[in-house]
Amino acid sequence: MLVLVAGEAPASSFAKQEVSIPMSDGVSIAATLYVPEGTMPAGGWPAIVFLHGLSGNRQQMNALAEGYGFVGQDYAVLSFDARGHGESQGLVGIDGPREVADTRAIRDWLAARPDVSDTRIGAWGISYGGGAIFNSLVAGVPWAAVVTVETWTDLYSALMPQGLVKSGLVAGLAGSIPEAKRDPSLTAVQAAAFAGNTAAVRPWAAERSSLSRLGSVTTPVFMAQGRRDFLFGIDQGSLAFKRLKGPKVLYVGLHGHAPSTFPAADTTFLMGQARSWFDTFLRNVPGSRPPAAVAVASERFSGQAPWSTSLPKTRPTTVAFPGVSTFARSGKAVRTSAPLRSAIEIFGAPTVRVPVAASGGWSRLVAVLTARTPQGSEILVSAGGVPTRNGSRTVTIRMIDQATFVPRGARLRLTLASSSTAQSSSNLLYLDLPMPATARARVGAAVLRLPGLQTPVTR
Length: 459
Hints:
The chain is α/β, with parallel strands linked by helices. The chain is globular. It has 2 domains: about 15-155 and about 210-310, Alpha/Beta hydrolase fold, catalytic domain (Rossmann fold, 3-Layer(aba) Sandwich), CATH 3.40.50.1820; about 315-455, Jelly Rolls, CATH 2.60.120. About 50% of the residues are buried. The strands form 4 sheets. It has a 10-stranded mixed beta sheet, sandwiched between helices. The protein has helices at about 60-65, 95-110, 130-140, 155-160, 165-175, 185-195, 200-205, 235-245, 265-280; strands at about 15-20, 30-35, 45-50, 75-80, 115-125, 145-150, 220-225, 250-255, 295, 305-310, 315-320, 325-330, 335, 345-350, 350-360, 365-370, 380-385, 390-400, 400-405, 410-415, 440-445, 445-455.
């Protein structure tokens, strides 16, 4: 993940050094350490470790920490190239047990320094780095406070929801890792996912997931998920929010994986909230933490987000899409609604319930939801899919958990096919993977259920 930062480094002075940290298996991890040059507080400087995204590096985290004022003032800061990334040795295993051991060793190395407090070390991580933080938390790494950004807590539900792999996204992630840097297990698990072998994928993903164990975590956790992140949906944070036992915050903002970006219009606000979180729990600054536990940013972000004490309430909107369509692998069924009588701010996972009769080896059904505004622009709302088998049954497709404002007068369009590319050649969520030439599907009337915010935040 590429991180570009707008901002200026603080005027305070600091010492910066490049270091190499040895791991227990002999691998060397490259890191950058910043230490303020002011008067050290009793017990040593509180510290923050910054963890980058997949295919990223510590230089991106250095720019982030410097640009948003974490360096040179009140904290020692350490960034590092994850195993198999940047200048670090080793192979990428996607935040497995070996990476958890690395994270623990790096935190312990920092805690052992005489100029760093061994009880006031926090962590900030984005995407791959956020997953590493969650996995290290449930493994018992004693972070004093953490911030995670656009990441996962359940890797299986993120990458293979309902047993159908998000093949385009997974192929893109795999392709971002140089072949020489991939752990051999990654090739095998990707092949299993593409073949629909859930029995092979589930244990691999479980070893890299934290959700089932978060009920024992009391560490202060600030989570920032994206409104529109088709890789790691809002549910990766909202389900964790319900389970965590310590101080916790969930901020749903404009950042994220595609179709969103990082940074985004609210990144300065987000980083300010992260700084306040660390000031509260690492420096004991009173009144620093966010005023309440949950905030959802408006799509038209204006500098602040409304805070509340709980996850926002939603109410359902149901839309019927009548019709019967039969198609082969290259075909599709497209259904369009009447204009919406009122705007809706979707918040959560839309679902589509539809009867499907599969024959000739038809193996999957993908649903893509878009909205055509009165001005003629098209919004990609969400997508999802399920495996199918020969025979007739009714399926419920749970789409990606996200937040999208759809204006009054927009027409919803539902595309049912074997891949998301049937909706648009640029929509690579679910690729057009091979099926037999004899494969056919017949789909009947579909019912769409949309969760919408009772109190919209976008106007």
